[in-house]
Amino acid sequence: MRGCSDAHCSCRRNCAIAACEHLKGKYSHDCRRFPYRRLKQPDRRYRTKYRMSMLDNLAAIRKDGIRAFVKHERERWTCRECSGTIDVHHYRCSGCGRVPE
């Protein structure tokens, strides 16, 4: 599944961002109305709970491009101990269980 861009994503039915007429065929960071009011509340929760920001992610994609963003995120979420993936929701490596510094 490719998230909100996937036609089979169940959240699309009630998603104002996915249904936005300004976004047809675009990434959400390309919209002239970015950042969206509806993303600000979940973004605050994600900053506090998961140490990441959807709005910062979209701004980084807008500024540096998707390839640079993916490279940075791959480095950020790779465990330095075992090269496993750090689970953003539990903030620990899914391979060795280590909590990042």
What's the helix and strand layout?
Layout: H1 37-50, H2 54-64, H3 66-76, E1 86-87, E2 92-93
Antiparallel strand pairs: 1-2
Report helical residue fraction: 25-40%
- What fraction of residues sit in β-strands? under 5%
N-to-C span: 31 Å
How many DSSP-defined strands? 2
Low-pLDDT stretches are none
Structural class: mainly alpha
The largest pleated sheet is described as: 2 strands, antiparallel
General description of the model:
- The protein is 36% helix and 4% strand.
- It is built from three helices and two strands.
- Strand 1 and strand 2 (92-93) form a beta hairpin.
- The termini are far apart.
Quick overview of this protein structure:
With 101 residues, the chain is mainly α. The protein contains three helices and two strands; from the N terminus they run H-H-H-E-E. 36% of the residues lie in helices and 4% in strands.
Key traits:
two-stranded antiparallel sheet, 3 helices, mainly alpha, about 35% helix, about 100 residues
